[in-house]
């Protein structure tokens, strides 16, 4: 329990130092690594790690934490925090149990949350006992330590002030302490300090409850699940095979149309709104592919007794669904490509490609599952989705969008326009290097607007006070690039 309490104190104070009144930067990576270290140490000490392979989830967790340090993408900054928490939960589940079924998986996530709240009561009970034990102990030693600290404070303050005047980096590191002392003098400062202490206490209780729940014996999360016979889904085989057959007939007709019209003649018909057709077609086809995955999953976990001929037929129909799903994905990809060529590149249109690519890769474990190979479909799907999401973070999407749109503009100068408003409103410092190219645009209005936009960004970087917790490579690179502007 002592290690849990100490670890929770460290995390609660560390988050306050790193994040209070600060924007995320290198601070996120530091906190993720610290949390991971304390989590693994606590679980290892309590012998609650049953599957060491699950430590592999630490790689995407740390990589997502590093994105706050390397890139400056506002979209991913909003959702990567949630993604990191979800991956921490998934890692804890697989550290505790290697093989887990889908219903148990969602139940385990629930026990992480509910068990943490339940364990907070145990933390409070421990602190109460600790306080009572201290009360009846000899306080002379504690009094001497406090007295020594108070005497040393003036000396320490003088030394820190002298060292701050000698080194600017050291000064930045400790300047926050003196600012904090200055703020305490005002009512607003006192309110700020009170709020900060309150958050530290609340997060201390949460961290302690969380660590107890996932590492101690017989908590809501770690207690063994009752072994119950899984009855699964029982649907008449003729129903399953009929659904698969009908879907395959429909997809055969659809695929024939795609090869004879969309892939070869789209846009040729007079009055055909091909851009609207491409965009709407994508979302409809993506939804159909999701339905197909659901149908395949239900069909192949069906526990109804089945004859060998019916079983073979179901496998064939399921594999045909996979083939037609890939054709549908290709059609959706092609439609979005047509739309993109006409109107340029955006977040949504690039996300499309990653969703489609992820779906194609997901068909591999599904095919193995249909063929009854020894594969953990849930775990494989989580790994694939996580990997693709991390890759999406590291392609530097802001820079890619700007580069593709600017390349498109210069290659077709005079024929196609460029949506400057979209680039200025939706891309940040990651795209500065590409935006500088537009200063040479033939359209003087575009070059003027881009120059004003870049100068405004430069002034904002120069005027803003810098904290080491917010350090970000993308912002640093933008400052260097704009230095001579």
Quick overview of this protein structure:
It contains 18 helices and no strands. By secondary structure, it is mostly helical.
Structure, described:
- The structure is a single chain.
- The protein has 3 domains: 2-143 and 184-215, no CATH class; 237-393, no CATH class; 398-481, no CATH class.
- Helices cover 76% and strands 0% of the residues.
- It has helices at 2-19, 26-45, 58-70, 74-96, 102-135, 140-166, 168-184, 187-215, 237-265, 274-300, 308-343, 347-370, 377-394, 397-411, 420-426, 432-435, 444-463, 473-481.
- Helix 6 (140-166) crosses helix 7 and helix 10 (274-300) packs parallel to helix 12 (347-370).
- Mean pLDDT is 82; it is low at 226-231.
Q: What's the SSE pattern?
A: HHHHHHHHHHHHHHHHHH
Shape descriptor reads: flat
Overall structural class, as computed from helix and strand content, comes to mainly alpha
Radius of gyration: 29 Å
Residue fraction in strands = under 5%
Fraction of residues in H or I helices: over 70%
Number of domains: 3
N→C terminal distance: 57 Å
Largest sheet: none
Low-confidence stretches: 226-231
Beta strands, count:
0
Number of helices: 18
The overall average pLDDT, rounded, is 82
